[in-house]
Description:
The structure holds two protein chains of two kinds. By secondary structure, chain A is of the alpha/beta class.
Amino acid sequence: MDYYFKTEQISVGYNKVPLIKNIDIGLNKGEILTLIGPNGAGKSTVLKSISNQLKLLHGTVFIDKNDLSLMTSSDLSKRMAVVFTEKIKSELMTCEDIVATGRYPYTGQLGILTKSDRMQVEKAMELVNVSSIRNHDFSMISDGQRQRVMLARAICQDPDVIILDEPTSFLDIRHKLEFLSLLQELKAQKGLTVIMSLHELELAERVSDKILCVNGEYVERFGTPEEIFQTGYIKSLFKIDTGSYDEEYSNMELIPPAGDTEIFVIAGGGSGRSIYRRLQRKRKAFITGIIYENDLDYPVAKALASDVIKAKAFEPIDSLIVETARKKIEKCNTVICCKNSFGSFENANEKLLEYARDLGKNIEMINW
Amino acid sequence: MQNSRKHRYILAFGILIIGTFLFFLLNICIGSVSISLSDIINIINKNDMVTSASTIIWDIRLPRTFAVMILGGALALSGYLLQTFFHNPIAGPFVLGISSSAKMVVAIVMVFLMRNAIRVTSFEMILAAFAGSMISMGFVLLLSGKVSGMSRLIVVGVMIGYICSAITELIVTFAQDSDIVNLHNWSRGSFSGMTWDNVLVMTIVISITVILIFLLSKPLSAYQLGEVYAHNLGVNIRALRIYLVVLSSILSACIVAFAGPISFVGIATPYLVKKLLGKSTPILMIPATFLGGSVFCLLCDLLARMLLAPTELSISTVTAIFGVPVVLWIMMERKKEGAY
């Protein structure tokens, strides 16, 4: 298959020492590729290399079948724009001035903007919604506005491919969402191909068409989000040993409490999550059950509880499971019940609570 | 907004051009012999009459004033280029030790040639100074890769300056008496003794250099954003850096060859001009800085001649008095912005 943007067996690194070898990327026009991987794994190095800031140590990058290394720097600047983490130096420059620098490849010998250049600047500013701050000093605006202005600048370059290094790192949640939505819109409107690195895995999973996983030595995986976010993979990519990340639910939890388990939590339907976390903060180990595998409580329980008594979704609860739960309760001295009332399919849990009462356990009822 | 910006640029250039004219005239009129404007117009119109006044105007004040104007502009511009190059607002040929090392090489050449009774031409002086500029520029570049930050770069420059001054002193100590008189005046920095020949040579060299610099204003504007973005916009960074080094060294060399090392003009002027324009776009800054340097040096030379007349002060004495407060102002402002 012919890809619009393609790398063939590229090796990247500094001072002729390859850091990551044999990277093969294939993207169709208008796709978003996100690089994920631990700090220092070489995401920036890859981005810098495919944008020709760093010399490739091996291999070739193609845009639309053109070999990047054979393109003139002026042609390349019309095809590829960058937004990097390096702070732009802007002495006495307004946001409009910054955006206008994107027209550089199109202006004449002295770099004077023509009317049509001005129009492009105008359009780019409107597209990312920064027209209202056009006359503000670039060094005085907020991080969210700054990233937008930088994006407008890149759009002004009228590129086919845009490369962004951690564009959302300094943004708050609202601006992260706004910025990524903007990228999706650009991709839809202009057929822009986007290559970027993100630290926010949950966002990477949602915004990307393809994901490239870099682990510091080689590319571990390249594929669609579904192919990448498989159970246990994130833990191994980032070498997580404290806490957990649940690929299915994009759910992350801190390290589960250790020690003797003296608490049994009866939960279900999302009623237990906050209690689990409260126990985690108090560093009290607990067992929880009986939880269906598709329950809202399940991913948190799996991450934090020392043991989860679980039941298969959409199946009646097996008596064996109930028996296990009872045995666990016998060993605990406190039972926390997160339910005020039990539904007709929570019969087993209701009975567990009664059993605990009969045993004379210390019962804590959580009233929601 | 577009219009109000334009008005500001016109105003700024108006002030600079009028300032240049005004100080040009004052420099010609005022001196140990005061000559009125009407007399000057007479002298210039009827240049066949040889009087003491016409000699003063034609042979002393006019060439000197032209030289001050041209060299002052060149000095400010070379400061501006170095500041752009190092992304450092207090870089300049004097603080980076470029002037001192140019002076050192010129001193060596002068002593050597004079001893052999060879007259040094202006052009050879420029070449010697250029060689000197490149030597210290090389050192600064070598070390600037290893030190970062505004103040450290300057420390490197000042150290180079000290070494060069020490070597120059050594040469002067071993030189013959007659050489020393020559060297001493020149090495303190002075615009005195300019001839029309000097003016001609400097005009040719400096105007070519300035035109070349002006043609670089587009890549310079991209370079200002930082190298990553400049590179992405298609600027050949390596070539641009070489141009910057060579062109700013030619300018510094001209100044040292004709007037000796002059301090602070290269730092203070670009900064003041930037404040006046309210913009740092190279295409505006290059001509404005040149004009600003002319005004600044015309004013300083006037004061150097007038303050303790008939004794003439060294030009650096005056430029330092005006320049140092500006440099301190720059550093305070930077601190406020938390840049360093």
